[in-house]
Amino acid sequence: MPLSEQQLLNMKQKRKDILEAATKLFATEGFEGTTIKKVSEAANISFGSVFTYFKDKDELFYTAVVEPLKELSENVFAFSTEAENPMIELEKMIETHFKLFAGINAYLTLIVQVIGQHHRYPDIFKELDRFHDEFRKRVSLLVENGQHKGMFAQQDPLTVATLYTSLLIGIRLNTTDTRYSDMWEQYVLSAINLFGPIKK
User: Boundaries of each HTH tetR-type domain copy (predicted)?
Assistant: First the structure.
């Protein structure tokens, strides 16, 4: 007998709850310190229910890191590399990214764990590397556009893009405030200056 729409919604919500609980636990207690029992308790579901959605802890960890990349990509890449006014596009991009990164502290902690032990998690690292390469490529194209139009100083676009992505992650991991606040807004001007805006 097929599942009802309500049953499917309940299953979708349970899976989401498991992933949210797992992300927080993996971020705070690491892979070794996180157990399926702890995840089930944090998600407020039975121990056995976790295995309805995930084969084992390895699959749960992989999913917690890789699955959010799709939605993250949609938001992070939502800027035009060929904007008519690259300076305005740059400002909007940076504000959007800062607001987004301000809210994903636990997830970024997971990313740093994988990068720091990339030999241990080669498949996950490959997905993160693909995302990062695309991110830097798109930012560098915006830089090239701004340079072509005489709005940004001439410097290596990929280097600028790499410094920018590093800044985003670094600020988030070094800031205890989990909200987007005035404190975050103070960093926007410094981030813009990375791109070498030419004042006219």
Answer: 12-72
